[in-house]
């Protein structure tokens, strides 16, 4: 059949009409195949080469017939291929199956190598064995797999770089995705969590409620849980500890079934901070009210009573100054003394409300005055080192003054120190305030005493200045309180 597009070389064959018809039909089927089909004889010479083979390898049929098969194989693979074919001819067993994991390589007419999927079979004929290979160019498939693998790796990297725990479960609520943040938050490794039920991460008393929520979400697609909506859930760490979480949930339909993904954020510190701030606000309010009451008492007990006494003396002088001049002079002396006391009390009350020394003399002298007053009251020496050229605008100067005042008050109340030091200096782009003592110290992790603002008040004042507080203290080793406040080049805090 000289016009047949596929040639199986057989010099001795004289086909009948039916045989010729069958051969033509077979040739048409082979040339319509999408995969390359190549048959070689026992000498590995090509005897069949279909159109798909022409397209894939780039060699025309006329140039490949009777040519060695190794012409289509890269040089470094030819020895292995020959051994494989010989072993297959002896045993009939080949490791190559179409769709398997093994990839072989072909060589195009232009010298380009490319990956192939292959299967091989053999046939006994009167002229000897024939070996047929079916080859599929998988260049595009491997490129697509590589792109998919890169995308999967990028996605895995993104998931593992997330700060929040990301967990995906199937319809049976078995964990199928568990990122590094989840490992850190829950304490279970990925190997321990994968395939486990999600309820492993939920306190027992909440498991039923969670299951009904997921089922409702599955039916309706509606959930009340949104990150940041104020809803607080509870998780359970590997050590059994419960902790508060914020979460959101989504679902995705896949050919294997629905997947539910939850994004979880550990808000333990936020809840603790909120509780501390609420406690601080309540206690601060109580202290403010106490201060108002104290000032009201001082105004009443000292200023009001003194003014009342002065008024009574003034009336007496009006009525008796002429008749009793000697007593009037004595009464006037008493009134002058009372006025001095009243003026002093007024200044003390005003200083408690607002350190006027800051306005009159500046920060450094005001700190020196605080240290001097502290030493007079407690008997504890206080060394002061303040940058004389440092100028702070309001409200920063007052805040620094109050932080030093509060810190020294804490030393006087609790430290039992014999030495204290205050240092205020410009360091780079910050003003650094430090108060040190050699007192008994304390544990910074111990619970704060009720009704005591203590260090919380210092932190609150520093935060108002966008600053930070670092406290270094150990029992028996003294305490160092350091406050750092960011500043602009002009010297005013940022």
Task: Tell me about this structure.
The chain has 494 residues and is α+β, with helices and mostly antiparallel strands. The chain has four domains: 17-138, 2-Layer Sandwich (Beta-Lactamase); 162-266, PAS domain (Beta-Lactamase), CATH 3.30.450.20; 271-353; 357-486, Histidine kinase-like ATPase, C-terminal domain (Heat Shock Protein 90, 2-Layer Sandwich), CATH 3.30.565. It has helices at residues 17-32, 51-57, 61-64, 78-91, 139-161, 180-186, 190-193, 207-220, 268-320, 325-353, 356-361, 363-378, 396-415, 454-464, and strands spanning 36-40, 46-49, 104-107, 113-125, 128-137, 165-169, 175-178, 233-236, 242-254, 257-266, 382-386, 420-427, 430-437, 468-473, 479-486.
Structural topology:
Layout: H1 17-32, E1 36-40, E2 46-49, H2 51-57, H3 61-64, H4 78-91, E3 104-107, E4 113-125, E5 128-137, H5 139-161, E6 165-169, E7 175-178, H6 180-186, H7 190-193, H8 207-220, E8 233-236, E9 242-254, E10 257-266, H9 268-320, H10 325-353, H11 356-361, H12 363-378, E11 382-386, H13 396-415, E12 420-427, E13 430-437, H14 454-464, E14 468-473, E15 479-486
Parallel strand pairs: 11-12
Antiparallel strand pairs: 1-2, 1-5, 3-4, 4-5, 6-7, 6-10, 8-9, 9-10, 12-13, 13-15, 14-15
Helix pairs in contact: 9-10, 12-13, 13-14
State the strand order across the main sheet: 2-1-5-4-3
Number of domains: 4
- Strand fraction equals 15-25%
From the 3D structure, determine the CATH topology of the largest domain: Heat Shock Protein 90
The count of helical stretches stands at: 14
Terminus-to-terminus distance: 94 Å
Mean pLDDT across the residues is 82
Number of E strands: 15
Q: What would the principal axes of the Cα set say about the shape?
A: rod-shaped
